Amino acid sequence: MQKSKLWIGTSWKMNKTLAEAREYADTVAAAVEDDAGLTRSVEAFVIPSHTAIATVAERLGRWANTVGGFRVGAQNAHWQDSGAWTGEVSMPQIKDAGATMVEIGHSERRTHFHETVETTRFKVESALRHGLVPLLCIGEPAETRDRGHTCSYILAQARGALAGLQRQELAQVLIAYEPRWAIGALGRPARGEELAGPFAALRSEYGGVVAGLLYGGSVTLDNMPDLLALEDVDGLFVGRAAWHAEDFVELLRAGSRWCAGTGERQGRRV
């Protein structure tokens, strides 16, 4: 299915030094300089570690906050503006560093750092209060999928995090469906039939309300066409397949071609 606009972004997780972050951002910036149409139809975003937010934002800042431009995000932030929260960073701090979006509720945060539906709601509200785009991550474990409870599970996560928001606030939110069994080095790529139901459920409740519904989980340049062909997918949240700048640029090119209707559904071309 041809789409008029796509979201394509990546989170680096706990990777890259400042030097590596500079090199990555400079490579991406040079590619955009060479091809002004690279992100014309793509809302691109990069979410580095906290230490590299300012560095990446400085180098991609020329295209920040523009249609078809780049956003730089943070992988997490606290819901309080300041205070005795040792080891945490606040929404005002990440915004001050150059972030315009924040990832909330990634499964690794939920599993290892006890992120709850309640804390995701606090963080979404705080992000919106400070003019940041919340990127809410939801997803079920394999045992929930096997019991056939995927839709109720992820809708509960989304509803809990977005409860009480007005329509104009919801319009600033991105939702990334990332089934836990499909992410990480040991993740299994999801099949189209496994994604159709969850995305139909999300579209039924949030379609035309939130800024976009994204898919993340073992995304590659090879499976990108089939994922974009899913009617309810507005974009892709890519992991390790975008950790090299050249690969991220190729994903952006592929997304741009897809929007232009020139994508090819075979090989490594899209």
UniProtKB/TrEMBL annotation:
GO terms for cellular component: cytosol. Pathway: Carbohydrate degradation; glycolysis; D-glyceraldehyde 3-phosphate from glycerone phosphate: step 1/1; Carbohydrate biosynthesis; gluconeogenesis. Its EC number is 5.3.1.1. GO terms for biological process: gluconeogenesis; glyceraldehyde-3-phosphate biosynthetic process; glycerol catabolic process; glycolytic process. It is found in: Cytoplasm. Gene3D superfamilies: Aldolase class I. Keywords: Cytoplasm, Gluconeogenesis, Glycolysis, Isomerase. It catalyses: D-glyceraldehyde 3-phosphate = dihydroxyacetone phosphate. One of its GO terms (molecular function) is triose-phosphate isomerase activity. InterPro entries: Aldolase_TIM, TIM_sf, Triosephosphate_isomerase. Belongs to the triosephosphate isomerase family. Homodimer. This is Triosephosphate isomerase. It comes from Nocardiopsis kunsanensis. The gene is tpiA.
